[in-house]
């Protein structure tokens, strides 16, 4: 009788460990290797324009100085709103002409078009334009543009 109880307890413990580990085999830990895998960017064709795939899921593509006409048009369509928000947040003059210096895209519930605009104080300001192509009446609204108060140095390695 006691051997049956022992066997049942043993089986329950084994089942518990298998469920806890999801059936995966245990792996021995080894010392860290110092070799790094090179980062690669994969180009994807979409509507005859190349967009670099982001390194991190949900992250934005790497910053680029070559701004395609389609993305320049989006910036120009929102230029009045961008200037208004830059005046509010960064106190630029009304005669300031915002021009995108760098560009990036982030795929979210639509697209975030991220631009870096060079300010008169020799710093970059970030401008984000949220665009949902499949929603009618979404394009051109002031709520789509975000200008955070943070500025970036021109030689900042993160931008």
Your description of this structure?
By secondary structure, the chain is α+β, with helices and mostly antiparallel strands. It has a domain at 60-153. 25% of the residues lie in helices and 25% in strands. It contains three helices and seven strands; from the N terminus they run αββααβββββ. The protein has helices at 2-20, 69-77, 79-90; strands at residues 43-46, 49-52, 100-108, 110-118, 123-131, 145-146, 151-153. Strands 3, 4, 5, 6 and 7 form a five-stranded antiparallel sheet that branches. A two-stranded antiparallel ribbon has the order 1-2. The radius of gyration is 26 Å and the shape is elongated.
Concise overview:
The protein is α+β, with helices and mostly antiparallel strands and 159 residues long. It is built from three helices and seven strands; from the N terminus they run H-E-E-H-H-E-E-E-E-E.
Q: Which H/E pattern describes the elements?
A: HEEHHEEEEE
- Based on CA atoms alone, the radius of gyration comes out at 26 Å
Secondary structure tally: strands: 7
Unreliably modeled segments: 40-49
What is the average per-residue confidence, as pLDDT, rounded to a whole number? 79
Tell me the structural class: alpha+beta
How would a crystallographer describe the biggest sheet?
5 strands, antiparallel
State the end-to-end CA separation. Answer: 72 Å
Q: What portion of residues is helical?
A: 25-40%
Principal-axis shape:
elongated
Supply the number of helical segments: 3
Strand content: 25-35%
